[in-house]
Amino acid sequence: MSGRRDLWTAAARDALVAALRAAARAFPKRGDDGALAVHGARKELKRAASLARWFLGVVGPSAHAARLAANGARRAIGRARDLDVLPLALAKVKCAPEIREALMQAMARERSESFGAEAEFVAPEIVDGLEAAAEGVAAWDLTEASDAALLDALRGAYRAAKRRGRAAFATADADALHRLRQGVVDLGHQLLVLAPAWPAMIDAQGGELHKLRQTLGDYNDLTMLGEFAVSRRELEPEAGKALVAAALRRRKPLERRARGQFERAFAERPGVFARRMATYLAHPQGKK
């Protein structure tokens, strides 16, 4: 890439800075704790965390501060996000009207408690941390970094996600499938940075990853619904168990769908994937 050496490393760094700054702007403030605000912040924080993890293999410890800032902010609003999606999962499960109503009330009550008045004191500190992390990343000296290291880290992310998937589908373990989703999210955000090289090809693979991410997300939401139901004192134990069983039935077709999507998205060996990506970056079709 004559004249364009290490351009992609710089582009990835810029994308991380942009994600951290966007997350700081989107982070819910006092009186701005609705589902859309939480979703918008979580979206940018996931992007920032994924890109920061990518750079752990490129710049080393310097990426930890950005990763910690993004993950800390995600934890602060994570429960609120979960309680926003649980009603959507509940709508997909058959249960008695009185059970549905009791759970909906419990979700609303817990969300109010978990993201209430104390958020106004936490938000400024978190926003300041995200902005400081963005400034720190923007000041990185990439002299010792390289596109080769960036690609090697990408291959590692692909290989790790593929291994997670093989293990998760072999056991059908909910926690393992959730860890797979985390790897899929990381890889998807990383590929988006490189998509301008060969938009059609990279976007196609990114699309497959997005489908898998969505399916695994729906699967995980049903898992959380079951856990929520059995933890509520408002429900009789038998009612909670019945809802868990209904959620498990809904998860089965999602697991089958996710398995097929996984096989398509991770059909290549990691080395083949990495060489293909290297070719795209060395001979870009799109404009940067």
Brief summary:
It contains 10 helices and no strands.
Walk me through what this model shows.
This protein has 288 residues and is an all-alpha fold. The chain contains ten helices and no strands. It has helices spanning 7-26, 35-56, 64-90, 97-114, 119-138, 147-171, 174-194, 199-231, 237-265, 270-282. 40% of the residues are buried.
Oligomer: single chain
Q: Could you name the CATH class?
A: Mainly Alpha
Mean pLDDT: 90
| Uncertain stretches | none
What's the number of domains? 1
The computed structural class is mainly alpha
Major sheet attributes: none
Shape: globular
- Our Rg estimate from Cα atoms comes to 21 Å
How many helices? 10
Helix/strand order: HHHHHHHHHH
CATH topology, by name, is CHAD domain
Name given to the CATH homologous superfamily: CHAD domain
Number of strands: 0
Helix and strand arrangement:
Layout lengths: L6 H20 L8 H22 L7 H27 L6 H18 L4 H20 L8 H25 L2 H21 L4 H33 L5 H29 L4 H13 L6
Which features would summarize this protein structure in a list?
single chain; 288 residues; mainly alpha; CHAD domain; 79% helix; globular
